[in-house]
Design brief:
mainly beta; Porin; two-stranded antiparallel ribbon; 10% helix; globular
Length: 406
């Protein structure tokens, strides 16, 4: 990424951030909202080398992590005046990447309507609209501490930096929504799923930080670790796009389908052409919530006309949550897979795995949340042989999280 692109992205995000403040200026106090959270964690980490430190472990915490950790510090500023709205989200992380970074920053307009039809639009940097888990402040999860493999990958590598429009039709408690976007700064989207595979992590990547690639990738390429890459970059000056269609019945049953294509030129340096289909389902049965999502896609990079790395990836999960007012119980099962091939044939970067998450949460006060999460991941990835480890690994991670809201 050149200096011109970095400067444009910084200006884009920062202007959107200040727009949220300017919109709120002169508005009533009810139109300005500032909230967030900070948490500390007692962790029994995995025995594997976490991918955040260049390893091939699948979890946020690994063999070198202490038992007491500062987890996430997240703040969200929202402003609204008339039909205009803006939002900026930031996070603090003193352990990895940039200590203070933005995760979202956008400005939008929601047109007034007296009919069944409504439309809105927004521009800036934001998450695509399909997550069923990450619906709380700062794109955090509601039912569990750690999101699914699908939404962990989105939090690390996928961001909409561009424009998005929404058209909605409402009738008799039924909603049909079509969302479309043109986006940029996503040409390296795909490198993480190809070179380190799926992971499980509630740490969201910032807009300006660099992601660390596995040390095994660097060694295989004859490079000295650590090797990092900025995943939010514009290389070919061609916009990507997505379309998302959803249907909700009486607020109790919902279906959602998305097609995503970053339209990147795979022949350019550090550029990966990535596409995927995603489908989601939600069902409310009294105080029980059922969620399910599935994703299937591929990404390819061509170093030359004869040399390429291509990865087919897929994952799915099912989650059941039980709302007991101040207590929430949740269980989730994931399956995931990648198939990587090169001009020379199959690659050791391919993987097969599954995971199980069980979380108990208590909200004794509106400003404090206590969660206990057990997460198990079992997978096979031949890339581990480069580091002298067995391809098949079973990882477990327990977290007790005390989260305070402000």
């Amino acid at each position: 990424m050149g200096f011109g692109t970095i400067y444009f992205l910084m200006r884009f995000a920062v202007l959107a951030f200040f727009a949220s403040i300017l919109l709120a200026t002169g508005a009533s106090a009810a139109a300005i909202q500032f909230e967030g959270f900070a948490d500390v964690r007692l962790v029994a980490p995995s025995a594997q080398h976490t991918y955040l430190d260049g390893g091939l472990g699948k979890l946020r915490y690994g063999e070198d992590d202490a038992n007491l950790k500062s987890g996430n510090i997240v703040a969200e500023l929202r402003g609204q005046q008339d039909n205009w709205f803006a939002q900026a989200d930031g996070r603090i992380d003193t352990e990895y990447g940039i200590a203070l970074d933005l995760t979202e920053a956008f400005i939008g307009y929601a047109a007034p309507s007296s009919t069944n039809w409504r439309w809105s639009m927004r521009v800036g940097a934001f998450f695509p609209p399909f997550s069923l888990e990450n619906e709380n402040v700062g794109w955090s999860t509601f039912w569990t501490v750690t999101p699914s493999a699908i939404n962990s990958w989105v939090g690390a590598e996928v961001r909409t930096i561009g424009a998005e429009g929404t058209l909605e039709w409402r009738s008799n408690d039924n909603d049909v929504t079509l969302i479309g976007s043109l986006l940029g700064f996503n040409d390296s989207n795909g490198v993480l799923i190809a070179e380190r595979g799926w992971s499980f992590d509630d740490r969201i990547s910032g807009l300006f930080e660099k992601e660390r690639l596995p040390d095994a990738v660097a060694v295989a390429a004859g490079r000295t670790p650590p090797v990092t890459i900025h995943v939010f970059r514009e290389i070919d000056n061609t916009p990507g796009w997505y379309l998302d269609l959803s249907y909700e019945i009486e607020g109790k049953t919902g279906f959602e389908l998305m097609r995503y294509d970053n339209e990147a030129d795979p022949m350019l340096t550090r550029s990966w052409h990535t596409t995927f289909w995603e489908a989601g389902f939600r069902r409310q049965l009294g105080n029980v919530t059922i969620l399910g999502q599935a994703m299937r896609g591929d990404t390819i990079h061509r170093a030359s006309a004869a040399a390429f790395t291509a990865t087919d990836f897929q994952s799915a999960y099912a989650l059941v949550g039980w709302d007991l007012t101040d207590w929430w119980l949740a269980a989730r099962a994931d399956v995931f897979q990648t198939r990587t091939r090169t001009a020379a044939g199959p690659s050791p970067l391919s993987e097969d795995g599954h995971a199980f998450d069980a979380t108990v949460t208590w909200l004794p006060r509106n400003w404090v949340r206590l969660s206990a999460e057990y997460l198990l991941v079992e997978d096979t990835r031949a890339q581990r042989l480069i580091e002298g480890d067995a391809p098949h690994q079973t990882e477990t991670q327990f977290q007790f999280v005390v989260r305070t809201y402000f």
